[in-house]
Automatic annotation (TrEMBL):
Transmembrane segments: 6-26, 47-66, 128-151, 163-184
Protein's name in the database: Uncharacterized protein
Keywords: Membrane, Transmembrane, Transmembrane helix
Amino acid sequence: MKFWNVLIILRIIFLLFFAIGLPLILHYAGNHHQSDYQMIHTSANEAFILLGLGTALWFIVFIYYIKEFLINLLLKKNDTIQLLECGEKRKGTASYEFEFMDSKPYQRHFEVGNTIGIDGQVGNTKTIVLTAIGLLLLIALAAGILVYTYINESRGYGWRYLYFWHPYIMIPGSFILYLGFLFGTANDVFSKYLDKFVKP
């Protein structure tokens, strides 16, 4: 359904802009770099705490991404493959709620009472590959920001160029905020109030 496709695209654009684009714009367009005076008066302990905070936030993002978008996808694929290997291909009526990797959930294929057919075309390998590429891009983004800013902003003061609103800290923090709170709340709202618009 086009409505859901547009909604998903808009949410992805929103996430990428506010989680990645906005912190970078504020940092570079606003010229929010630590001055020599500020870095001189920043202790090594404070610098390492900020470095550790940013790294911890990035690892939380990586773990969340791996769990939600990679491990769950692989587990569902394996479960479906086992079902196909041990079962017989046929059409039937769903007597309990299924949890499949449904690319079109708005069509409600697997709701109780619906007629369903299961064949060998499960576990979209392309989706898994794209998900893995997304993880690599996230890792590259974190490493790239850290290396680039260290080379161009440290000016011989080590990690003292980091501050609490630095993109290395703000970007993973924004991901956690939007994915954990805003997107979680939005999912509840959409599932509750927009359900009537997608019923067949």
